[in-house]
Amino acid sequence: MNCVKNLWLASTVILVSLFIFYSISSSRAMQIFEYTGVKKCAMCHEAQHAVWSQSHHAKAFATLGTDKAKEIGKQQGIEDPQKSGQCLKCHVTGYGDKRKIIEEYGIQCESCHGAGKGYATEKIMKNLELSKEKGLIMPTEAVCKECHNSGSPTFKSFNFEKAFEMIKHQLAKK
Ligand code: HEC
Ligand code: HEC
Ligand code: HEC
Ligand code: HEC
Fold first, then answer.
1. Residue 28: per-residue pLDDT
2. Does the pLDDT at position 89 exceed 50?
3. Is the CB of 151 within 6 Å of ligand 3?
4. Ligand nearest 64 Cα, by number?
5. Does the C-beta of 148 come closer than 6 Å to ligand 3?
6. What is the pLDDT of residue 37?
7. CB 147 within 8 A of CB 90
8. Which residue has the higher pLDDT, 31 or 30?
9. CA geometry: angle 92, 95, 99, nearest 5 deg
10. How many whole angstroms separate alpha carbon 91 and alpha carbon 105?
11. The ligand 2 atom nearest the CA atom of 152
């Protein structure tokens, strides 16, 4: 009787440890991708870069230095919005996750398309599925709403179709 019980216990222990081992190793396998910065994307996507450069997104860090930003900051007890995580988290790329990126460029490609160090090579980029495995995101409305929401002090509303028209950088399809 005792022997059976012990056997049962032992196999349960083995199963549980296997499960734990499996969970740990599979979460290790989930990759954290690094940022590479807009200059790198621009090397191959000149047309998209030209459109982006003229967008509000490219100026989102500079915006935090304006009088309007300082006024909003003051109401929230923030001295310098360009130095406060409470503003930077939506006004630059990858704030606070310690992956190296140049904040001055504002909302860069990788804010929407995912950190690009893993996919930004000719060979990988030519294969959309592989690019996605290496971190490329083809953004939908949900990505926009990570920042375009009522957490923004100046938020009024967000209409995806209208907003997308204003930022789109697709090349004309043949
Ligand atoms: C070495 C050149 C190169 C670099 C660097 C590069 N790309 Fe690409 N990218 C390509 C090529 C080639 C394609 C394939 C589509 C094409 O032929 O235009 C592509 C496709 C894409 C697509 C469209 C996928 C699709 O099929 O609709 C996106 C989005 C994209 N790149 C974003 C980026 C971003 C963001 C960066 C910077 C992190 C970047 N790329 C860096 C060469 C590059
Ligand atoms: C990482 C945060 C972030 C993401 C993701 C993001 N945005 Fe923005 N967006 C901003 C910020 C911040 C501004 C304001 C920039 C400024 O004025 O300096 C802005 C401004 C804009 C503007 C100009 C608004 C105006 O009324 O002048 C449009 C349009 C826009 N975003 C569309 C989009 C769309 C479409 C998406 C998704 C495909 C998107 N954004 C994703 C942060 C973001
Ligand atoms: C949740 C994301 C988010 C946070 C947090 C955030 N912003 Fe923004 N900010 C946006 C977005 C998106 C826009 C453009 C659309 C809008 O006004 O919502 C924007 C636009 C702005 C604008 C331009 C508005 C205009 O009409 O000219 C200023 C100025 C600004 N933000 C200042 C700040 C300051 C200062 C802070 C910190 C106290 C801050 N933001 C925090 C997302 C955010
Ligand atoms: C505010 C979010 C946002 C930013 C910033 C952004 N993109 Fe995009 N990008 C999109 C969306 C949304 C699409 C359309 C996705 C789809 O068609 O499914 C797109 C599509 C693309 C495509 C495919 C174009 C085509 O012809 O189909 C390329 C290439 C691309 N982006 C490159 C870039 C590069 C390079 C940058 C930076 C210079 C950039 N994007 C910045 C949201 C963004």
1. 43
2. yes
3. yes
4. 3
5. yes
6. 94
7. yes
8. 31
9. 115
10. 9
11. 12
Which candidate, 168, 158, 172, places its Cα nearest to that of 138?
168
Query: How far, CA to CA in Å, does 158 sit from each of 2, 26, 145?
Result: 66, 37, 8
- Picking from 140, 113, 107, the residue whose alpha carbon sits closest to that of residue 128 is 113
* Contact by Cβ (8 Å): 110, 93: yes
Ligand 3 atom at shortest distance from the alpha carbon of 81: 35
Ligand 4 proximity of 170 Cβ (cutoff 6 Å): yes
Per-residue model confidence (pLDDT) at position 101: 76
Residue with the bigger pLDDT between 60 and 18: it is: 60
Which pLDDT value is given to residue 32?
A: 82
* 74-79-84-87 Cα dihedral, nearest 10 degrees: 20
Rounded Cα gap, residues 65 and 80, in angstroms:
8
HSE value, Cβ hemisphere, 13 Å, CA-based, for 29: 7
The structure tokens 């304006």 sit at 66
- In this predicted structure, the answer to whether residue 19 has a pLDDT above a threshold of 80 is no
